[in-house]
Each structure stands twice: as structure tokens, then as C-alpha cells.
Amino acid sequence: MTMPLMFDLLGVFFFGVSGSLLAARRGFDIVGSLLLAGLTGIGGGIVRDVILGEVPTAFANPYYFVPPTLAALLVYFVAPGVQRLKRPLLVFDAAGLALFCTSGTVKALELGMNPFAAALLGVTTAVGGGLLRDVVANQTPAIFDPRDMYAVPAMMGAGLIAALWVAGFSGWVWELAVAAIVFTLRVLSLKLRWHVPKAVGPWHREAELN
Amino acid sequence: MTMPLMFDLLGVFFFGVSGSLLAARRGFDIVGSLLLAGLTGIGGGIVRDVILGEVPTAFANPYYFVPPTLAALLVYFVAPGVQRLKRPLLVFDAAGLALFCTSGTVKALELGMNPFAAALLGVTTAVGGGLLRDVVANQTPAIFDPRDMYAVPAMMGAGLIAALWVAGFSGWVWELAVAAIVFTLRVLSLKLRWHVPKAVGPWHREAELN
Amino acid sequence: MTMPLMFDLLGVFFFGVSGSLLAARRGFDIVGSLLLAGLTGIGGGIVRDVILGEVPTAFANPYYFVPPTLAALLVYFVAPGVQRLKRPLLVFDAAGLALFCTSGTVKALELGMNPFAAALLGVTTAVGGGLLRDVVANQTPAIFDPRDMYAVPAMMGAGLIAALWVAGFSGWVWELAVAAIVFTLRVLSLKLRWHVPKAVGPWHREAELN
């Protein structure tokens, strides 16, 4: 196993845990736990690859089935223990976000997409799995919540990778540097409770909207 | 920029505004506003292109990122003003519906799909974005509402384009004529409050269904 | 029409009826009934084919538009009668599940997917349509319900087909045998009220999860 594959599988695992935990909280069965773990872990990459016209990585390589299975088993056996680890889990999730937004953008650029589309596909890779998890579990997507800043670091990272590519800088050193920035921003946003502006400016009252 | 591209971008913009307005009403953040604007504006075309095995138009051409951004900014700055324009917005939305159902059907026919599949993909282009908007925002899709007739004009238009194609008539004159018919039907359906039959015949009582 | 196509269309019809019945119960219009019938009947196969990079079967062959239309018409005219047939419908649905999970796995194997991915795509073909139906109708997917065992027989059948393929056994005799096993398991699970373990082990209390 190569180093990048190891990192990717780790990202899939940490994303997968959030899917299995949601299944646990909602009283779903173990099938739902497995499916939500898989969807959260590899869903973003599947959407990216389908749009790029490639066979999704996760279907080309059976290793990708291991992390969601482990996530579902972990939650089955020690769900409350996993719940109590909420804070470390958020840190690992931030690492997944950072790795997926850079690797997704790079893959799209290498396949010849324009920088805007590549950055969008990088963001899709990073946040698409969590979005699918919430949509399939029939709840309002967490990334729309103004109290948390989840997608913004990924958008910045993907944009930065695309801009560096246009300027002629690419390679794993730049990728790692950008991933480190995304990770730092995400962790800081949690620590300092940064939030995102709402869809309407603060000068509007809610009442005006209905 | 060619004339058809201009029209297409306008359609994306008007569809996008409905996505951003929904984000505003639901209290989502600006990321949700952008994502729902993009999904509503270009989601139908993405589904069509993925099924056709093509790289989605919106990813091949960075211009498509401008209208959803404008829609999100417009709603951020003047949401209540946009809300008050509900009636003119519905007219513009009808124009988008008319253009997307004809252009979507024609694209599928040109790529060699059979007339039934092409018409279905034309309808998908026209109503798919709004459907994705509602599914992702976790609400019952508006196109299922029996009090409004939204998909039917698009189905008629797509079917008409496919029938004309089979009969040997194609070209922008026919497309424009069909689009005008779809637009007129949609606006009339709003003015005259036409509605669609329910999924069960009127001779059944609701109680019998549970 | 070949025999396999006939079976496939029957499966699409029975799945489609469940989509139209849901539209009826939820008070949707006839457009929603048609769309949910189509999505339930052919949605799983579309997702499979999009991931495989093929033009979806249902779009290549106009016959596939007939069963969802018949399902929507049937529910429109005799919905309460259809409701009363709940038990026979579940048996037909089990037949669809059995046929779709074997045919989906075989198609993926023939197109060169690895056995794990092929089995997953077989399960997707079998349960994907029902999942899409529930997601689009904005309700919690039925396959996550621990009181019913729906996906497990399909997972066993798809895994068995893939294992037989690896061991060198393929052909319609094996497919039919596995489909018969899946069908029997599904019908037995209904008769004997088998259920699936929850996402968390029984030694955890619900309270610990929030």
C-alpha cells in the first residue's frame, strides 16, 4: 500500500464513523450504519469521479470497503465510547476534509478540468459525502448550519490548489502545505467558534422573508 | 459569447435565485445559498450529462459559475426585495423551464438517444434542478404539489420536440416555437390556477389509503 | 422480447407500484406518481450504470417506460384495491429484489469490476430504487428500519454470485438458483418477522447516545 492510499483510507474511516454514529442516534439498523458509513466516506469521491467520467476509485480498489466496515463495527460495539470522543473525532474529520479537498482538486486538474471546475470538484470530494449522509438520512445538511464553518476551509484550500496549478506550482509539497492550512483553519474555526454569514444580510429581519 | 449560451446562463440565474431564496427562508448560511443556487441552476443539466456520459456543460465552461454567485449575492443584499418580486420571478422561471426542456431534449437527440429517452432527459434538465434543490434542503419536492402545474408543460414541450425530430423537423425555429408554447402554457397555468390530477382518482377517499 | 427482458420489466413494474402507492399516500399529483414509479423501478439500475460508465439500460430501450406508466395508471384507478393487495405485492417485490441483485452483480462482473465492487453494485441495483424513492419523497428510507430485513437477502445473493464467479461458476442456472435463494430468504424474513441488529449493540442504552 502506498502512502497516499493509506491517508485516503484513513480519511474514509473518519468520515465513515460520522455516518455510523448518525445511524446509531437515529435508531437505524446495522445495514443503515454500513450504508451511511460508506456513503459519507466515499460518496464525495464517487460524485467527483462520475462527473469526471471515471470509474470511481472506491469501486476500482476493494481496500475502500474496509474502512466503512470497521466504522460500522466500531460504533456497533462501543458507540457511547465513540460519542465521548467527539472532540478528537472532529480533529480527525478536519484531517479528512483537508486531504480530500486537495486530492480531489488535483485529480480533476490532472484530468484536464478548468481551474474553477477542478476547485468545485475538490470541494465536492471533501463535503459531498457528508451532504449525501444527511440527505439520505432525511435531515437538514449540517454544512448549511450558519453556526459552524465547515465548507469554507475546503473552498479556500481547493481554490488555492487551483491557483497554484495555474501559476505553475504543483506536486506533493504544495498539496501537503495547502492541506495543512485547511486543517489549521478548520480546527481554529472550531476552537474560536467562527461562523459563516447567513444567506441574507444581517440588516434583514426574518419576518420579511415569509 | 453566443446567443444560446447567453440564454442558458440567464436560465441558470433565474433558477439559481429560487435556490438562494429557499436558503434564506430556511436560515441556511451563505454556503448553503451558493450551493442551492448552483444545484437548482445547473443540477438538471448535470444529471442529463452524467446519464449521457458527457462531461457536464457547466464543468466544461467556467461562465456557469457566475449566475449562481450573482443569485446568492443578490439574495444576500436584497432578499426581501427579491421576495416581493415573486410574480416576475415566476415568469422568468417559466422562461428557464421552456428553454431547458427544449435544449435538453435536443442535446439528447443529437447524441443519439431514442425519442422517449430524449424527452425524459429534456424534462430532467428542466425540473431536475428544482427537484435536487428540494431534496437537498430536506423538503417535499414542489413539483409533486397537485395545486401547481410545473412539470406538465415541460413534458409536453419535450415530447413535442422529440415528435418533431422523428417527423424530420429540427432547427432553432422549431425549438423557439416549442419553447414559446411551453412558456405560454406555464404562465397560463399560473394565471388560471390550473392544477394536476392527484396520484389517485377523485373517486377514492383519503381514508382508504392508510 | 427476450425472456430476461420480460422478467426485468416485471421487476420494474412491481417496484414501480410501491412508488406510486407512496405518492398516493402522500397526496402527491400524478406527475409525482409517475416520477416515483420510474425512480423506484429503474433508479437502482441507473445508478449502477452511471457508476459503470454505461448508458443506463432504461434509456437505451424505450420498453422501460411502459411499466412505470402502468403502475401510475393502476394506482390512479384502483389505489385502495392495490393497497389491499399488500401481501401479494410484497411477494412480487421480493421477486424483483432477487432478480435485480443477481442481474446487477452479473452485469458488473461482465464489465470487469472486482467481485467486491460487483456485489455492491448488485445490491445497489436491488435496493437503490427504493432508497431513491424514499429520499426524493422526503422520508426516512425504509431499508434502515431494524424491524424489517430487506437489504440482507440481496447482500447475501450478490455476494454469492460474486463468490461463484470467482470460483468459476457462472451462467443462467446459477443466477436462477441464487435468485431463488434470495427470494426464499426475503419471503421467510417477512413470514417469520426476522429483523436486523441495530446500528448499536443491544448492551447500550439509547440515552447514552445523545
UniProtKB/TrEMBL annotation, chains A, B, C:
Family, as annotated: Belongs to the UPF0126 family.
Chief localization: membrane
Organism: Paeniglutamicibacter sulfureus
Keywords: Cell membrane, Membrane, Transmembrane, Transmembrane helix
Pfam families, per database record: Gly_transporter (PF03458)
Topology within the bilayer: Multi-pass membrane protein
PANTHER family membership: INNER MEMBRANE PROTEIN (PTHR30506), UPF0126 INNER MEMBRANE PROTEIN YADS-RELATED (PTHR30506:SF3)
Entry keyword annotation includes Transmembrane: yes
Name under which the protein is recorded: Membrane protein YeiH
Start and end residues of each Glycine transporter domain: 6-79, 91-164
Transmembrane segments: 6-24, 31-51, 63-82, 89-109, 115-136, 148-166, 172-188
InterPro entries given in the database record: Gly_transporter (IPR005115)
